[in-house]
Specification:
This protein is mainly alpha-helical. The chain has one domain: P-loop containing nucleotide triphosphate hydrolases (Rossmann fold), CATH 3.40.50.300. Helices cover 49% and strands 12% of the residues. The protein has nine helices and seven strands, in the order H-E-H-H-H-E-H-E-H-E-E-E-H-H-E-H. The two termini are 17 Å apart. The structure holds BIS(adenosine)-5'-pentaphosphate. The site of BIS(adenosine)-5'-pentaphosphate has 36 residues, from helix 1, helix 2, helix 3, helix 6 and strand 5. BIS(adenosine)-5'-pentaphosphate binds next to helix 1, helix 2, helix 3, helix 6 and strand 5.
C-alpha cells in the first residue's frame, strides 16, 4: 500500500523477485489491457485517465481470475489491490476460498510533495514495464530502457491535475485500509524516502518476521 508514486511498483519488482513469487499489479493489468484494446482496457481507460478508481466489481473479478492462475498457487505479491474496503473484504473471501491467508500488508510512507516529484519525472518502458525516473533513476540513454532497449513513455495519468485527483481518491477511498489492516495486526509501515535500494532493504527487514 501507499499513495500514487510512493514506489509500490518499483519495490514490488524487487520484493517479488526476492520472495520468488509473482507480482500482481492491478494497474499493470489494466494498462496491458488498454494497450491491447480489450473491452476491459477500454472500460478501465475512462476511470484511469481521470484519476478515478475502476469500479470494484470489475477489479475484483479481474483479481479473482488472476489469482486462479497456476503461478499464484504458492504465494503472490499484490501491488495496488485492494484499494477500497469492498475490495479488501472481497480479497478476504477469495483467500478463504483458496485456503490461504494474507501474511502482511506493507505500507510505503511518503509525503505528497515527494510523490509529486516522483510522478512528474516517471518514465515507463513500453516493452518490459521497467520503471525509471528522469532525475532519481535515469536510464543511461534518455528515452531508452537499459534493460531491454524499449521506448520509455510518460503515463497519461501523471499529468499534474490527474495526480492531484489520484491523491484525493487515495485519501478518501484507500487510506481507510490502513486502519482496517492495522486493526488486524497485519500492517507494517516503512519509511519510503531515500534511495530505492535503501527502501528495498527496509522492506526486506520488515518482511523477515513473515518468512521474507
Ligand atoms: P496504479 O498503476 O496502481 O497507480 P498508483 O497506485 O497511482 O501508483 P503508481 O503506479 O502511480 O505509483 P507507484 O507507487 O507504483 O510508484 P512507482 O514505483 O512507479 O493504478 C493506476 C490506475 O489504475 C488507478 O488510478 C486506477 O484508475 C486503476 N486501478 C489500479 N488498481 C486499482 C484498484 N485496485 N481498484 C480500482 N482501480 C484501480 O514510482 C514512481 C516514480 O518514483 C518512478 O519514476 C520511480 O522511478 C520513482 N521512485 C521510486 N522509488 C523512489 C525512491 N526511493 N527515490 C526516488 N524516486 C523513486
Amino acid at each position: 500500500m501507499g499513495p500514487p508514486g510512493a514506489g509500490k511498483g518499483t519495490q514490488a519488482e524487487f520484493i517479488a523477485a526476492h520472495l520468488a513469487v509473482p507480482k500482481i499489479s492491478t494497474g499493470d493489468i489494466f494498462r496491458a489491457n488498454l494497450a491491447q484494446g480489450t473491452p476491459l482496457g477500454l472500460e478501465a481507460k475512462r476511470y484511469m485517465e481521470s484519476g478515478q478508481l475502476v469500479p470494484d466489481e470489475v477489479t475484483i473479478n479481474m483479481v479473482r481470475e488472476r489469482l486462479a492462475e497456476p503461478d499464484a498457487a504458492h504465494g503472490f505479491l499484490l501491488d495496488g489491490f485492494p484499494r477500497t474496503l469492498p475490495q479488501a473484504t472481497a480479497l478476504d473471501k477469495m483467500l478463504a476460498d483458496m485456503g490461504v491467508a494474507l501474511d502482511v500488508v506493507l505500507e510505503l510512507v511518503v509525503d505528497n510533495d515527494e510523490v509529486i516529484r516522483r510522478l512528474s519525472g516517471r518514465r515507463t518502458c513500453r516493452n518490459c514495464g521497467k520503471i525509471w525516473h528522469e532525475a532519481f533513476d535515469p536510464p543511461s540513454r534518455p528515452g531508452i530502457c537499459d534493460r531491454c532497449g524499449g521506448e520509455l513513455y510518460q503515463r497519461d495519468d501523471d499529468k499534474p491535475e490527474t495526480v492531484a485527483e489520484r491523491l484525493r481518491v487515495y485519501a478518501r477511498d484507500t487510506a481507510p485500509l490502513i486502519d482496517f489492516y492495522g486493526a488486524q495486526g497485519k500492517l507494517v509501515g516503512i519509511d519510503a524516502t531515500g534511495p530505492v535500494e535503501d527502501v528495498t532493504e527496509r522492506a526486506k527487514d520488515a518482511l523477515r518476521p513473515y518468512g521474507g
